[in-house]
Design goal:
Shape: elongated
Helix content: 10-25%
Radius of gyration: 14 Å
CATH topology: Dodecin subunit-like
Number of helices: 1
Largest sheet: 3 strands, antiparallel
Structural class: alpha+beta
CATH architecture: 2-Layer Sandwich
Order of helices and strands: EHEE
Number of domains: 1
Strand content: over 45%
CATH superfamily: Flavin-binding protein dodecin
């Protein structure tokens, strides 16, 4: 049994709905691109505000992706 090796990607997920949706968008994007995502880490959370209202959530996420030998 071998020990897994991971590469780490850093993406910024965005959403008009919320932080969890922004995280899910980043993970989905990486998965569609063919990455084998095993874990994530939220590094930074921020958003955009217009006229006193939140218009976008932005989440910097590090993704751990399995590498293939």
């Amino acid at each position: 049994m071998s020990n897994p090796v991971y590469k780490r990607l850093e993406l910024v997920g965005t959403s008009k709905v919320g932080v969890e949706d922004a995280i899910a968008n980043a993970i989905t994007h990486a998965s569609v691109a063919g990455e084998l995502v095993d874990w994530f880490e939220v590094v930074e959370t921020r958003g955009a505000v217009k006229e006193g209202e939140i218009v976008q959530f932005q989440v910097v996420v590090r993704l751990g992706c399995r590498t293939t030998p």
